[in-house]
Amino acid sequence: MAEDSRYVAILRYAPIAPRKLRYTVDQIRGKNVNLALSALKIIPRRGAYYIHKLLNSAVANASNLNTDLDADNLFVAEARVDPGPVRKRWRSAPMGRAVPIKKRTSHIFIALTPVVEEEAPKKPARKTAEKKAPAEAKKAEAKPQDKSPEKKS
């Protein structure tokens, strides 16, 4: 596949509110897949379970579509949570009334992209290190070797 390819996984109708998922998705966006998976294991939020499963699915999709791809070189290029349909329920309230309950659902989208390592131009060696070495040698010569205090008689 091309270098700019993306590997996608989508979870639709997750039974959790998008507001609760967005906090967790913000924690993994732009990270390496291995770092994101380990972070999701320790995040104490219910949405981390859904995102962890979806991220594993995206890695599996990438490895199935491109067998030459190393899963360690993937990072989360895009991760978003969109609202799904809202189920409306009614709860009984005092004095014969009913109050609405909105059970929100979410659609989670994760796209992975392989890391493209570009060769950065090498910087020339710093010349200050060469200049410091002779200066330090001169300082060492200037200092007296015996620093024992002299006794006054």
Which key features would you list for this structure?
single chain; 153 residues; Ribosomal Protein L22, Chain A; three-stranded antiparallel sheet; 4 helices; 3 strands; elongated
CATH superfamily: Ribosomal protein L22/L17
CATH class label = Alpha Beta
Give start-end ranges of low-pLDDT stretches. none
What sequence of helices (H) and strands (E) makes up the elements?
EHHHEEH
Average pLDDT: 85
CATH topology category name:
Ribosomal Protein L22, Chain A
The major pleated sheet works out as: 3 strands, antiparallel
Descriptive overview:
The chain has a single domain, classed as Ribosomal protein L22/L17 (Ribosomal Protein L22, Chain A), CATH 3.90.470. The chain is built from 4 helices and 3 strands, in the order βαααββα. The longest helix is centred in the middle third of the chain and has 19 residues, at 47-65. It is α+β, with helices and mostly antiparallel strands. A 3-stranded antiparallel β-sheet has the order 1-3-2.
